[in-house]
Specification:
The chain is built from 5 helices and 6 strands; from the N terminus they run ααββββαββαα. By secondary structure, it is of the alpha+beta class. Strands 1-2-3-4-6-5 form a 6-stranded antiparallel β-sheet. The N and C termini lie far apart (66 Å). The relative contact order is 0.15.
Length: 156
């Protein structure tokens, strides 16, 4: 009985340690960004950086267990006919993990995710997707070479 109880406590303790070691942290976010980007500036819970010429901002909230990475694309007053509709269709088919969104009269490319279970490889992919979604706004409206559930030509 004592042995079974001790093993149970050890297993609970081990699973807690394993889970904590697997969680994303602000330090890991910063390390990944520093390895991939230029002009990295860290201030409180915000990281600003340039990735392949795209100025990006990452904001995280440890209490809410959320992170948001974004880059501005275009002022809404400068949108041409059909652009917003194509961006919304891309959110469904070709933007994948990045999304197009509007905030403060600006169209943004964004990635929003729970912080604790964000894997480094997925985060690296998200950086590329956000930059690509910005670069292709107004043309392909995609975050990468893949589309989900539709041919690219059918979307644009």
């Amino acid at each position: 009985m004592k042995t079974a109880l001790l093993i149970g406590f050890l297993m609970i303790g081990f699973s807690t340690i394993t889970k904590a070691e697997g969680e994303m942290t602000p330090k890991i976010l910063q390390d990944i960004i520093t390895a991939l980007a230029n002009e990295v500036k860290v201030e409180n819970n915000t990281i600003q950086f340039s990735y392949k010429g795209v100025e990006m901002i990452l904001v995280y909230d440890m209490t809410a267990d959320r992170m948001r990475m974004m880059t501005p694309i275009i002022a809404t007053k400068n949108l041409q006919e059909g652009m917003l509709r194509k961006a919304m269709e891309a959110n469904y088919h070709t933007a994948l993990d990045a999304r197009y969104a509007i905030f403060d009269e600006v169209v943004w490319s964004v990635f929003i995710h729970p912080l604790s279970d964000l894997k480094p490889s997925f985060f690296k992919s998200a950086i590329l997707q956000v930059a690509t979604a910005r670069a292709t706004f107004g043309s392909e409206y995609t975050s990468g070479a893949m589309s989900f559930g539709v041919n690219q030509e059918d979307v644009i």
